[in-house]
Amino acid sequence: MKTKILIVILAVVIIACGVLLGIKYMSKKSDAKEENIAEGNTTIEEEKEEDNTPKTKYSGNQRTIAVMIDNVGDARPQTSLNKAMIVYEAYVEGGLTRYLAVYKNEDIETIGPTRSARPVFIDYALENDSIFVHYGGSPRALDDVKKLKMDNANGIESPANVFRRTKEKAAPHNALTGTKVIWEYASKQGYRKTTKERNVLNYVVEEVTLEEGTGATTVNIPYSGAKVKYVYNIETGLYERYFANKLQTDWLTKEKITTKNIIITIANNYSTDEEGGYGRQQIENIGNLDGYYITNGKAIKIKCEKKTRSGKTVYKDLEGNEIKVNDGNTYIQIVSPSMNITME
Fold first, then answer.
1. In terms of C-beta density within 10 A (0-12 exposed, 13-18 middle, 19 or more buried), how is residue 7 classed?
2. Closest CA to 77 of 144, 169, 15
3. What is the rounded CA–CA span in Å between residue 178 and residue 180?
4. ∠ at Cα 161 (156, 166), nearest 5°?
5. Where in 63-202 does DSSP place strands (E)?
6. By CB neighbour count within 10 A (0-12 exposed, 13-18 middle, 19+ buried), where does 25 fall?
7. Which residues contact 242 (CB under 8 A, 6 or more apart)?
8. Number of helices (H), then strands (E), in the chain
9. Tens of pLDDT along 68-122?
10. Cβ neighbours, 10 Å, residue 50
11. pLDDT by residue (tens digit) across 278-299?
């Protein structure tokens, strides 16, 4: 009888220990997950475990990093444009354009060459809730960064390990950075690494085909400094990008520069009286602007609605519905109304 009682007691003790160990394990797992969320390291796989809903490449609560990228002849070819979630291109001065590359959920060793900030790109860094990365800036842009108290890394002021120079390109077109050193700098500065905001673009898992759209297998965007052209590759489902009549490739990987989506925003631009002159451009991007969404060889007309400088641009079809964007990288081309854009 005593033996049976001892066996029962032992069994109860074993079960109780198992329950306690299970609780402890789940608690540790929960604590680890909370720590990851706090650090902006939540993975897409972890999110799927929560709600079993398929996620896009750019899902998650990690904050974005927005990097100013040089685009003059000595800076080309650039590197890591293909890894950006969004690349904005707009006039700066002298007919030249510059890029703002927005990165999310990427671990990248080398990005660049980086270059100085301009006011219009600050608008797009703000609407993406980004840490803004630049190497100097025009007087007005630097004043904006300070007044708006933007989380930023400025190559002129930041520690040398955030930016490095390569001997393979001529200064000042040779400053490089990477996401790891930016996150390390962000930690030291106390910058937030996560966001509660949704992505600017409404990325979806299901394929968007624009059945009612017009043909757009070739898209020509003639900036005065150099023409941009996109050519659709039906085999890959991507657009290959040309600049100044030359196929763009990555400086380090030698891969073609491609994109899944193209958005064109038509906005007035004009020369400012900014200190130093140089014909620096201001772009009127607030309001309800005309544009196009282009993907998979088709294009539709859209409206680009931006209510405030820091407010997110909402891209809508002509019926007023926010457009669905294919799960892949996107170039947003900001062009003037006088530009003769052609598609075929």
1. exposed
2. 169
3. 6
4. 80
5. 64-69, 86-91, 97-103, 130-134, 152-154, 164-165, 175-176
6. exposed
7. 227, 228, 229, 230, 231, 248
8. 5, 23
9. 999 999 999 999 999 999 999 999 998 999 999 999 999 999 999 999 999 999 9
10. 9
11. 789 999 999 999 999 999 999 9
Give me 178's structure tokens: 């990477």
CA distance 210 to 72: 34
Q: Which residues contact 81 (CB under 8 A, 6 or more apart)?
A: 69, 87, 99, 101, 248, 250, 257
Domains of the chain: 64-189 (3.50.90.10), 203-343 (3.50.90.10)
Query: Which token pair is 313?
Result: 């641009």
Any idea which residue has 């100085």 for tokens? 116
Percentages (nearest 5) of helix, strand, coil residues in the chain: 25, 35, 45
H helix runs in 103-199, sequence order: 119-127, 139-147, 179-189
What integer is the mean pLDDT of 13-23? Answer: 51
Tell me the three state secondary structure of residue 33.
helix
Pairing label, strands 258-259, 287-295: unpaired
285's torsion region: left (phi>0), alpha (psi -120 to 50) or beta? Answer: alpha
Helix, coil or strand: residue 250:
coil
pTM of the model: 0.85
Q: What is the pLDDT of residues 134-144, one digit of tens each?
A: 999 999 999 99
Q: Considering Cα of 331, then 336, then 339, then 343, what sign does the dihedral take?
A: positive
